[in-house]
Amino acid sequence: MSTRKRRRAGVAVAALAGVGLVAPAAIAAVSPPDDGVTTLVSKAPDGSWGDKTSTRARISGDGRFVVYQSAAQNLTTNRGGGPHVYLTDVSGTLFPGGNNTRLVDADATTGARCKTKAGTNGQSTFNEVSNQRGGDGPWVVFASNCSNLVPGWTHVGDVYIRNMRSGETRVVSQANGNDGATIDGVSTRPVISDDGRYVSWNTTSGNIYVRDMSDTSNRRSVRVAASVSNNDESLRPEISGDGSTIVFASDARLSPKDTNDSRNIYRVDLSRWQADKSVTSFTYELVDVTSAGIAAPRPSSRPGINDDGSIISFQSSTNLVADDKNGVLDSYWRNMRTGQTVLLSRGYDGGVPKGQSSRPQLDGSGYVAAFTSTSNGLVRGDTNGRPDAFIRVMDRSDPTKGTTYVISQRPNGDTAGALDNCAEPAGAAARTAQPVTRAAGIGLDDTILTPFARPGKSNVATRPYLSSDAGRVVFVSGMCDLVNPVTDGADNQIYVRTYGAGGPR
Fold first, then answer.
1. What digits encode the pLDDT tens for the residues 299-317?
2. Lowest mean pLDDT, pick from 77-86, 183-192, 303-312
3. Please, what are the domains in the chain?
4. Closest to 274 (Cα-Cα) out of 195, 221, 336
5. Nearest-angstrom CA–CA distance, 364 and 131
6. Torsion-angle region of residue 443: left (phi > 0), alpha (psi -120 to 50) or beta?
7. DSSP code of 230?
8. Which one of 95, 163, 446, 477 is most buried, by most CB atoms within 10 A?
C-alpha cells in the first residue's frame, strides 16, 4: 500500500485618543436575524465564568445535557489540575440544589478529580453524552489517562462510560471475555448513541471499535476497521442517533472506489452485527464523492451523521461540486440514499465565498447543519474578521438551497467578536467601569467595563454541535461579547444557543 497522507491571526488595534479605549471594527447587525438566545454553560455555581479554558463540547440529542472538557477550577467544588470532563444539565431538572454542573471523571471512592498511577493529576477528554432512557441516565463517554475511575481497573488510556444518575463508571474498552484486559492499546475519541447503548471509538493503533453496552457476552465488542500498517489508520468515528450506523475517516483504502493516497470518509451499517454478534466483516461505503460518484482526491475528515445514518457531513479539500473553485477547505453534505453531494458553506448570494469552512455537524433530520468558517460571505453583516460558527437550514425539496445564520452573535444581533469588549480578568486590579454604548460605536446596549485588547487570545467561535431537533446548538468561543454581561475573554468558554425546534427562523 502506498504511503498515506497523515497528518490566529493577530489583529492590530489602536487606542482611541483621550480615553484609552480600543478602536473597534465596524459593527453591523447580521442578516438574516434569528430568534436564538445564547447562554453561558461553563460557569461556576455563583454564575461567574470558568476561570480556565473549556473546549470539546457536545450536546445530547434531546438538547438537555452538555458535556465538555475544562481546565477550570471553579465549575464545581472538585478541584485539581489538568483538564477534566463536566456535564451541565441545561434543562435544570436532573441535579438538585441549584448547581447544574457535575464532574464526570471522578475518583471511584472519593468523588474527587481522578489521578494517574503516579498520583499526579489525571486528564480526561473526548467526551459525548446520551439522552436519558427509561428514567435512567444520561450516560457520558470519555477517554482518560486516570487509573482510579473504576475499582480494580488500573490500566491507563481507556474509554469509560458514566451513568450520571447512578454515578456508576464502567470501562468500555475491555477485551471480549476478559473484564480485566484492555481491548487494544490506548483508546480515545468515543461517541455514543442517543439511548446510551452503543459506543464507538478509535485506538492509537488505528482501529475502530463498537461495543454494545447492554451485552455481557464475549462478543459485546467488534473491530469495525483494522489497521494493518503504519499508513492506514482509521479515526474520528461518529455514530448515528439510533446507533445503526457509524462514519469515520480513514487512510486505508477500504473501497474499490478509493484509488487515491488521501484520507477519506467511510460509512458502515452495523445492523447485521447488532442482529448477530458473530458478524465480524463489514461493508465500507465511500462518502466523500461527487454526486457522480467520483472520489475526493485530496484529504477529507471530521464527519458528522444524522439520526438514522442516511445523511453524512464532512470537510474536504477537494472541490466536490462544480462551482467550488475557492481552493480551500469546505464543508459538504451527502445523502447516501439519493447520492447527492451538496456544498454547505455557500454564500448568502448563492456563490462560493472565500475562506475555509470546517467541522460540519448535523441535526437528527440531516437537513440542518452547523459548521465553523473564516469566510465573511456566508451572512450579510459579518464584519468581525474572525472565524465564526454558523448554522444552515436546508431546503428539503432542494438541498442545494437554504438559509445560513450566524451562531456567534451578540445579544443585540450584532456580529460577536468585532471588539474586545471584555470585563476585567479575575484577580486583576480593579478598573473603572465606563458607560460604553452601541451609539458610541463600542460595546453592548448596556454599560460594561472599559474594553481592552487581548492580543493572541482565541477570539473565535468553533466546534458547533446540534441537538437532534436543531433547537439547541453548543459551541466553543473565546469571544467575550456573546452574552450580557460580557466575560473577560481570557479563555474559551462553552455556550448554548437556543432556538425553537427545527433551528433558527
1. 999 999 999 999 999 999 9
2. 77-86
3. 37-412+451-498 (2.120.10.30)
4. 221
5. 13
6. left
7. T
8. 477
